[in-house]
Design a protein that fits this description.
cytoplasm, globular, EC 2.5.1.18, tyrosine catabolism, transferase, alpha+beta, Glutathione S-transferase Yfyf (Class Pi), Chain A, domain 2, 209 residues
């Protein structure tokens, strides 16, 4: 059972991993804005004390934190692999994933944006642009067809949702041709299409693809 919110980039990462690995699941929507945020309910807090999505019930345990979930899926259901066999490439994948997951995404998360008030869009744009400047430089050394070489990896699962956030906050993507090229290639893959925020059970009608 995946507890997810259609627009959550962390949830989207996990949905992509589940799709790539062919793991079927039931989706339970958790609306992060309705009723003051359904993630703050006592019921959900018991499931994930951090009161964030995603959370995944699998194999008799409940996991939160998207990368921890993806690592578990990788270790228990290794095909197709999301971490390269080569140790150097594997380190690069983890570096890029961490760059996005720790260095960009939390800074433009809903809880932070609420505190920024009227400056939230400008704040989000600056955080994303700063992270993307570094990421563009890194990818110029690591990228093949995707973030690291020619195989889809955990890094790509983090990239596409972050680009979607950038587009939502109207970040100018002109300075980031490598990021843009990789994202375009990823969005053509079926696993990225079926897991896309515009195609979820809880996607509002006006945002549906």
């Amino acid at each position: 059972i995946l507890y997810s919110y259609f627009r959550s980039s962390c949830s989207w990462r996990v949905r992509i991993a589940l799709a790539l690995k062919g793991i079927s699941y039931d989706l339970v929507p958790v609306n992060l804005v309705k009723d003051g945020g359904q993630q703050f309910s006592a019921e959900f807090k018991a499931l994930n004390p951090m009161q964030q999505v995603p959370a995944l019930k699998i194999d008799g345990i409940t996991l939160s934190q998207s990368l921890a979930i993806i690592h578990y899926l990788e270790e228990t259901r290794p095909n197709p692999r999301l971490l390269p066999q080569d140790p150097k490439k594997r380190a690069q994948v983890r570096m890029i994933a961490d760059h996005i997951v720790s260095g960009i995404q939390p800074l433009q998360n809903l809880s932070i944006l609420k505190q920024m008030g009227e400056k939230k869009t400008e704040w989000a744009q600056n955080c994303i642009a700063s992270g993307f400047q570094a990421l563009e430089q890194i990818l110029q050394h690591t990228a093949g067809h995707y973030c690291v070489g020619d195989e889809v990896s955990m890094a790509d699962l983090c990239l596409a949702p972050q680009v979607a956030n950038a587009e939502r906050f109207k970040v100018d993507m002109g300075p980031y041709p490598t990021i843009t090229r990789i994202n375009k290639a990823l969005l053509e893959l079926e696993a990225f299409k079926v897991s896309h925020p515009s195609r979820q059970p809880d996607t509002p009608a006006e945002l549906r693809a």
